[in-house]
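Cross-posting from the modeling subforum.

Setting up a comparison between two proteins and wanted a second pair of eyes on the formatting. Protein 1 (sequence, then structure tokens):
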Amino acid sequence: MKFVHLSDLHLGKRLNGFSMLEDQEYILDQILQIIDSEHPDAVLIAGDIYDKPIPPAPAVQLFDRFLCQLADRQLLVFAISGNHDSPERIAFGAHLMDRSGIHLSPVYDGSISPITLTDENGPVNIYLLPFVKPAHLRRFFPEKEIASYTDALRVAVEQMSIDTTQRNLLVTHQFVTGALRCDSEEISVGGSDNVDATVFADFDYVALGHIHNPQNIGSPAIRYCGTPLKYSFSEASHTKSVSVVSLPSKGELEVRTVPLIPLHDLRELRGSYQYLTARETYLGTATDDYLHITLTDEEDIHDAIAKLRVIYPNLMKLDYDNRRTRAGIPLEADHQIETKTPLQLFCEFYEKQNNQPLSDEQLAFTQKLMETIWEEKQ
């Protein structure tokens, strides 16, 4: 059985003030061409369909068109809500759309029943688990100890009563420990949203969303397909793609990628104003790409962004790198930040600000306050 794995469409997104809707429509049309050549049995969309819980009307219309085009091809679709989506809005009309083979995740209510497909090698059970927080699970399982995202996902999976003799596929949207993140993703302080990959041990394939860089976590069976477009300049070096997944029989898995070519690439350029405006520099290059330009001139160029946009109309961001800006460069980032708890991070911040550590009384008060805020937030 073959699947096309998509996620993080972020329809309706604006990047540095530029609407990405035309680019999103272009890339969805390209994905349809790939689907036509691959002939999958179903399409998996692992959350963050929209960029905001209340998406703009053109984004909703674009997704509606995409679903209709998939349905016209008599393709099954399995889609869930991500952390950027409103689960209630994604679930609207789900029972009606089920009849057309468009399966949208309901709002999580403590139980998930699989949708079972069958081929010559038997059943494939597909489970749709939308983005959930520990608080969502505590509401339905107050008797369980659910202190972390790993606890929450473990409890959610336990309720599925998975038959491990059959092929089982999960579509979900979480941050699995070890995934490489980008600037365009929401990051929780201290890595508090981490989920341990061991909770997915009973699945033959886990179609993940949330992380924008395509990657496997530990094995090809746990995979982020990544975004179809670049949504930050930290993704400039990424190669975006569609993941094509085959589950021939129990214990067999094949995953490969088909590259996507955007309408406008997202690139970074660097050099002096004179160099970047020289005819020999920009001739033969895609000047209409979305650009982040870093000027190396020691003196600021008057109205540089307007002047550069004459040549590079989609210039999104302009920086300088010279003696003046380097003098104000902040301290090197703490690359261990995601392994530290919020309390550890606060203690370090307090000590840097006050040149002394928290007292025992202050530490106890801070810890109690954080626990109270965490409970309210969850």
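Protein 2 (same layout):
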Amino acid sequence: MAFRVFIDTDILLDFTLKRDAYDTVRKLMEWAIKGRIQLFITPSIVLITSYWLTKAYGSEKAKELLSALLADIQVIDIGHEITVNALHSRIGNIEQALQYYTALHHKLDYFITRDNSLDKAGSPALPVCRPEEFIKNNI
């Protein structure tokens, strides 16, 4: 069975904008396309990513890229209860808290980020790891 993996905003932006971590994140995308892992994001990640893609490539290209990504990435909901729990969590970064608690609620296997603030605030039920760490441990 494929791991169910949440990727945060920076991971998706690394891939779509071909930032420094592009090669590492590309491997995650390849694994998702091959069915080795299932990737998940929230609507807020789509919103933030669409903003930066539109700035970089224009509206039409941004729509094309997002549509292509959503063939291999599933968008999961953030509900009221998840939002309240995230706001009352130990995670100081609200965006990260909302994403982490959404992934936790949906019982995903891993939360992939480059944000160090989640290292101590995460739960054993949802391990937090860097993209390169996840790839190294799951080759």
